[in-house]
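User: hey, got a sec? need Cobalt-precorrin 7 C15-methyltransferase folded
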Amino acid sequence: MKWIRDEEFIRGDIPMTKFNIRILVIAHLAIEKGDRLLDIGSGTGSISVESALQGANVWAIEKEKEGVDIINKNSIKFNVNLNLIEGQAPEDLPDIEFNKCFIGGSGGKLNEIFKYLETHLEAGGIVCGNFIRLQNLDNFIQFLEEYKYENIGVQLIQSSYMDKIGLMKGQNPIFIVKGMKRRLEND
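Assistant: Yep! Here you go:
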């Protein structure tokens, strides 16, 4: 399996989930062929593109026009089909069910997104989010608990990369959080 390096993605001024975090997120989501992934706050589309290459059907939503353009360019560059939505979650999200959801950016609407997932993420589905700010991390965990998600896991990743002259440049610590939507009582 080939993973895409950060420098291969078209970037612009839009945030991107970096390589080592991206690979862990896809592993936490357990992306497989045929999955239906909702990527909220898609940025450059790095999670969407990598997931599509793994065989997932992907719906990517991004509110920034530059981000939508970059996602479109990256989907063409890596020859993947994405259902790209320019808009805000959850109001512009489709009325279909997903079995995986990644939240890279919520626009301050985590509560509304979890309400949406209550009817649009299937039982046993996985939601995963990345956070830099402790307040957002805490809110996400509270919503996972409030909506009775199971197998909640939190991982803190701190990484550094060597620059062109050999200095290590630290990246922001990233919290990766995941939970599995509770299964129905008769499952």
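Quick note: The longest strand covers residues 121-131. Let me know if you need anything else on Cobalt-precorrin 7 C15-methyltransferase.
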